[in-house]
Structures are given as C-alpha cells and as structure tokens.
C-alpha cells in the first residue's frame, strides 16, 4: 500500500484556509459622500434626532410647535448661572438668523461652540455633545439649515445674571459649588466619569 505524505493532505487545507482569510481581509469601501438633496435630507434627519427643534422651534417645548417658523428661535428663556439665554434663529435669514454664516461657520459652531466672531454659544446649547459628530454629519446639518426658508424672527438678547426677566423661563439650577467651567485641566485626572 502506497502511503500519501501528510504534506499532500495538509496542502489543500492550508490553501483553503489562506483563501478564506484573504477574502475577509479586504476593507469595505467607505460609502460615497452624500451630496445635494441627499445631504440635506441627512441634515434634516440629524437635526431632528439631535433635538434642534426642542429649543429652536417656537412652541415645540410646549407641545404646539409652529412649523411655519421651524428652527427660527424660541422666546422660552433658559436661566442659569450665566443669566438667561434664548435659543437663536437658525434659519438663513440674514438679520435675525444665521444667514451671514458660512456652512463652515455653522460646522464650527456645532462642533466647538464658537460663533464666527469667536464668542461662545451659551448654555444650554449642548455643543460638547455634538463635538462627536463627524465632519460630514455636521456639514449635512449646516446644508439643511442653509436650505430652510428664511424666517425673520428676532430673539431676545441674553439677560445678565440677577436682572429682571419677562416671559417664560426654564430655570437650570447650578450645582452647589458652581464655578464654571468645572472641567479639570487635561493633566488632572477626573474623579467623575
């Protein structure tokens, strides 16, 4: 009886295993970047799921949104240690909205909290949460905002801490020892998650 060398038996098995592993090793190509209407639709979706309407659409917080003025700002004030702030007009209206902002300005504001003039967005705008958005997603939101119908709707100016306020407000009490910002320096380990 003729004996088959073990290498001959192992060779097909090794070849099959190698081919299987190689077929798994290819990278899945990144999806093609969205453009045009698809990018605006993505921006609409993201603005919806991130809650932009909650604060920036009149009446939304009360359960009666004025959809004819979607994202044009709300007179509902947010009171905290910074004073009282109001959700701004996000439509491309040039005088009361963000019409003078470029798409890049909007992306910067979404991801860093900085306005084109270098000033910071006021609380409760959760820009630190939005910093994790990809540049593509932030740009989709910017394109959506630029595609909105411009709505002239001037919002009240910020009210300094302790000043009298007219209208409805939501008060966000500070922690017992508020000293903004409470974020530790990068080299300092944090004791909280």
From TrEMBL:
Gene3D superfamilies membership: Cytochrome c-like domain
Protein name in UniProt: C-type cytochrome
Record organism: Eiseniibacteriota bacterium
Region forming the signal peptide: 1-25
GO molecular function, one term: electron transfer activity
Keywords: Heme, Iron, Metal-binding, Signal
Domain of life: Bacteria
Residues covered by region (Disordered): 170-193
Transmembrane stretches, start-end: none
PANTHER family recorded: ALCOHOL DEHYDROGENASE CYTOCHROME C SUBUNIT, BLL4482 PROTEIN-RELATED
Span of domain Cytochrome c: 38-149
Compositional bias of kind Pro residues: 183-193
């Amino acid at each position: 009886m003729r004996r088959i060398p073990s290498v001959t038996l192992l060779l097909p098995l090794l070849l099959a295993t190698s081919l299987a592993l190689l077929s798994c090793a290819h990278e899945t190509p990144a999806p093609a970047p969205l453009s045009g209407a698809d990018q605006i639709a993505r921006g609409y979706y993201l603005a919806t799921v991130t809650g932009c309407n909650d604060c920036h659409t009149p009446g939304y917080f009360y359960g009666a949104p004025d959809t004819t003025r979607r994202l044009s700002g709300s007179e509902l004030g947010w009171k905290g240690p910074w004073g009282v702030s109001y959700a701004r007009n996000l439509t491309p209206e040039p005088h009361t909205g963000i019409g003078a902002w470029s798409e890049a300005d909007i992306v910067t504001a979404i991801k860093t909290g900085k306005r084109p003039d270098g000033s910071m967005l006021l609380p409760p705008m959760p820009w630190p949460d939005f910093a994790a958005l990809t540049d593509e997603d932030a740009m989709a939101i910017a394109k959506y905002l630029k595609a909105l119908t411009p709505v002239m709707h001037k919002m009240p100016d910020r009210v300094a801490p302790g000043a009298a306020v007219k209208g409805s407000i939501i008060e966000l009490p500070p922690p017992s020892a508020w000293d903004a910002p409470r974020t530790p320096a990068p080299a300092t380990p944090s004791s909280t998650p």
